[in-house]
Amino acid sequence: LIGGRVDWSIAIALPIAVILEGAIVGCATLSTVSKRKGINVIAIALTGIVLVCAGVELVLNFHATRRLFISWSAIVLAAGLPAAGFLFYTHYRLVNRASLRKLFHL
Q1: For residue 104, what pLDDT is reported?
Q2: Per-residue pLDDT at 81
Q3: Which residues in the chain show pLDDT less than 50?
Q4: In angstroms, how far is CA 81 from the centroid of its own chain?
Q5: DSSP labels for 50-72?
Q6: Residues contacting residue 62 through CB under 8 Å, at least 6 positions apart
Q7: Is 38 within 8 Å of 89 (Cβ atoms)?
Q8: Cα–Cα distance, 24 to 39 (Å, whole number)
């Protein structure tokens, strides 16, 4: 990368840019299509961020070792997807007019 060559841009930068732009377009489309905007938009963005992290790691690992595997992004997936799921659940539960006292057993 430091040697002045730019061939890494096709192998690394282009796939990462495609993954990032795909996530942005997907998140923007899902946010626009949703009838009620609220916590679900945050959950959509969080899911997009988690998928971008996994995609970046897959691209970098494939470039370095020619194998597809995840290591650190598994932690991001394990933390981000349940958090997004909870946000989706909370949003759609609140849409159905459930009280917060019943939802959180207060």
Answers
A1: 67
A2: 97
A3: none
A4: 8
A5: HHHHHHHHHHHHHHHHS----SH
A6: 68
A7: no
A8: 18
